[in-house]
Amino acid sequence: MLTVLIVSQIISWIVILGLGIALLALARQVGVLHVRVAPAGALLTGKGPVVGEAAPVLDALTMEGAPVAIGKALAKGKMQLLLFVSPHCPLCKDLIPIARNFAKREKLDIVFVGDDAVEEQRAMIARLEMQGLPFINGPIVGRTFHVDRLPHAVLIGDDGTVLSKGLVNSREHLESLVTAHEMGVVSVQDYLSHSKPHSHTPTSNTRVA
After folding, report:
1. What does DSSP say about strands 67-70 and 58-61: parallel, antiparallel, or unpaired?
2. Which residue, 47, 56, 81, 91, could crosslink 108 as a Cys pair with Cβ 3.0–4.6 Å?
3. What distance in Å separates the CA atoms of residue 149 and residue 45, rounded to the nearest whole number?
4. What is the gyration radius of the CA atoms in the chain, in angstroms?
């Protein structure tokens, strides 16, 4: 009987030791993946004004009748963030509060843009507490920037240049717009594609996302 207990104890310790080794190996692999997998950035589309070129200059009115200039020169160091949204976009309702806080933190002049019935827009504004923020409602801005999927963002610099743009659905995507500008690249994806090590072997109308 004593021999059986001793053998079972030895087997138990062997199993525990094996589990510990497996857990350490798993933790190491998770660390490797964390290093290799870069954060997702705003998805750049091939339509509309090109990053690095002058943004279209537009004079628009908010839903409250206040004038908003798009693409014109701003105060030195300021940036304008256009965020295209819709009350029919499931992602927008989660992104709008995030974008509002993000713009405040980064000191961006945020302008919301939509193209839906006024009653629906006002209901969304009330529901998401967007009162006091500029909201342009109409097709002109979206058509000018060739926006065909939402949520979509465009970051414009103080000289009217398009700094970055793309489809966004999280804080990380919004942050990538500023990051891409600071790094001097078209998009985070563009930076990642060019920063990957190359092998030495030679090789041959608006939709809601």
Report:
1. antiparallel
2. 81
3. 10
4. 25
Q: Copy the structure tokens of residue 27.
A: 């933790």
Q: Which residues of 155-165 are buried (b: 16+ CB within 10 A; e: fewer)?
A: bbbbebbbbbb
Hey, what amino acid is at 85? Answer: V
Whole-number Å distance between alpha carbons of 86 and 9: 64
To 5 degrees, how large is the angle CA 98–CA 207–CA 167? 40
Helix (H), strand (E) at residue 103: helix 90-106
- 1 vs 56: which has the higher pLDDT: 56
Classify each residue of 34-48 as buried b or exposed e, where b means 16 or more C-beta atoms within 10 Å of its C-beta. Answer: eeeeeeebbbbeeeb
Q: What is the pLDDT of residues 133-189, one digit of tens each?
A: 999 999 999 999 999 999 999 999 999 999 999 999 999 999 989 988 888 766 655
- Rounded-to-10 torsion of CA 180, 186, 190, 194: -90
Tell me what pLDDT residue 116 has.
96
Residue 163 to residue 132: CA distance in whole angstroms: 26
Output the six-digit token pair for 114.
């939509």
Contact 177/168 with Cβ under 8 angstroms?
yes
Beta bridge partners of 70: 58
Q: Decide the pairing of beta strands 207-208 and 152-156.
A: unpaired
163 phi/psi in degrees, rounded to 5: -85, -40
End-to-end CA distance of the chain, in Å?
Answer: 67
